[in-house]
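Most newcomers find our protein records easier to grasp once they have seen one. To make this concrete, we reproduce a full record directly below:

…
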Amino acid sequence: MTDSPTPDTADKIATTVEEELSALRDLGGTAREIESVLQADKRTGNRSVEELIRHAIEEVQHAEVVNDGHECAGGVSSVPVVIDTPPAETRANGEILIPVIRELVSNAVEHGGSAPEPHVSVRVKETSDTEGVDQWWIDVADSGAGISNHEVEVFEDAEEQPLQHGKGLGLWLVWWGVDRLGGEVSFDIDRGTTVTVELPGSLLSYE
């Protein structure tokens, strides 16, 4: 900047520096959150599944919870997010589950399709047997191009390669958070992207 011959060039350099510093700051924040996720207890007292999901969505910029078939009450930049969950409670620690859902919804909102009809959904389903819930899933789906094949490959390999790496730490937070809860993550890329978080039935109840 000192050697810059024109004010315009200096302004461009300053803007680039600010953008890079902002990205580094966000990266550092995610890294600290990952550390907290990895140190958090797997289980806590029961909390409403819907409450945790709503909490996660509220932390996503431009995301707005709506009912099926309803438009956002917010501005034109708001993206509707439909929730479909049974009246169940979970023992999964919110310090882990909320960041996981937030990251998936954030990615879906960012890549979930173009206006005027971007659409994101968060749906919970489960299977039961005579002893209670056997397994349960959280599906986060979008109507757009969604996550790239490259990102999915990196994520499913669960390891960084010298020439194959993700764009950030958000999906690693999801991977490590779900693993901390004893679950698994899978992707379905067909007319949009659906990310499925599979969790142990012991973490869900209707009591």
Summary: Residues 7-39 form the longest helix (33 residues). The chain has five helices and nine strands.
